[in-house]
Description:
Its EC number is 3.5.1.88. Removes the formyl group from the N-terminal Met of newly synthesized proteins. Requires at least a dipeptide for an efficient rate of reaction. N-terminal L-methionine is a prerequisite for activity but the enzyme has broad specificity at other positions. The chain is an alpha+beta fold. The protein contains two helices and eight strands. It has a single domain (7-175), classed as Peptide Deformylase. The longest helix is centred in the first third of the chain and has 22 residues, at 30-51.
Amino acid sequence: MEPTKGLADILLLGDERLYQACSPLGREDTELITEIISNLHNALMEFREKYQAGRAIAASQMGYMKSLIYMNIAGKSTVFINPVVTYKSEEMMELWDDCMSLPNLLVRLSRHRTIRIRYYDLEWVEHEQELRDDMAELLQHEYDHLEGILCTMRALDAKAFQWKPTPVPHPVEQMLPQNPGEPEVPGLGVD
């Protein structure tokens, strides 16, 4: 079992692993599943405590290229093993999407208003649920991660991005120049 992972281990935009599709898990992967869930839970709770946001996280966001989503809403955890979206409504909804892998960016996109998702729970019992609105949006976002698709790839157009300040600066913000109006390297300007 790997050492415990948390918030600092969430992959950020630009990491090549975020663009890779995940492989399915098997019943023989019990130890790995336990490890993944523990680390996803830690990261989600740390993110939520620090940024007052976060409902779910995909295994790939922590570098586990396995098909698993961990969700925790109102203190209730749900694990989706090998999820598959089996239905997408024609009716769409537009929204601003955000992501733990790009915590300061909002992306305007369209999602299906209703989806049906089939998955296994921790006992390998198969479930199929129909989800609408917020839950449909959330599971589409996480499922996209398992397919190597980021919300930036679903943006409505080139202007569908907005900077979102976080309550506490994310570590990536510490890498930004202190005065964004001035070039960091002398002689280089902003186009």
